[in-house]
Amino acid sequence: MNKEELIQNLREKGFPQKILDAFSKVPREKFIPYQLRGKAYDDTALPIGQGQTISQPYTIAVMLSELGLKTGDKVLEIGSGYGYVLALISELVGKGGRVIGMEIISELAEKSKENLEDYKNVKVFHKSGSAGFPEKAPFDGILISAACRDIPEKLMGQLKNGGILVAPKGSRFEQDIIAIKRRAKNEFEIIKRIPGFVFVPFVDEEN
Known about the structure:
Layout: H1 3-12, H2 17-25, E1 46-49, E2 52-54, H3 57-67, E3 74-78, H4 84-93, E4 98-102, H5 106-115, E5 122-125, E6 139-144, H6 153-156, E7 159-170, E8 175-184, E9 187-197
Parallel strand pairs: 3-4, 3-6, 4-5, 6-7
Antiparallel strand pairs: 1-2, 7-8, 8-9
Helix pairs in contact: 1-2, 2-4
């Protein structure tokens, strides 16, 4: 599958034009190991080393759609890998937005910094995301790109009122993608639950 075929595939699944435009602008081949670049636009997850993967484009599109990002938003991604989703988010929030990635595995964090050097509104930090990033909070959107058994309350507390957190939640072998909206200081609501996904597990300590 080439990029045009992938975009058409996503279009047929009903994703909004803003999401399709972001996928069109970001070269996925830049964010995967060189030897896999022939598979860059296959709609499948691919290994990026250290036991981690770059998610299937369809899955990423689902999560970004549920975040509902707007121009100028400030967004945190936890488990940012090679930086592909950070690049997509950068396109969605525009030059006035701010995008922060947290990646606990040093090799992936360093590689993503290289991959994203042209994205001036993105910063990547090599650190655990289990406590979020309170120094940079609050966020309009938080994306967790690894499977969680439970969503840490610390992370939900770093949303702005009206902000949305999207994460895969469930067992080791199957998760639901859930979207949680902060309605007020102590009021949170699950606004979407989409079953049937499999992510690599959340890493608390660097291996």
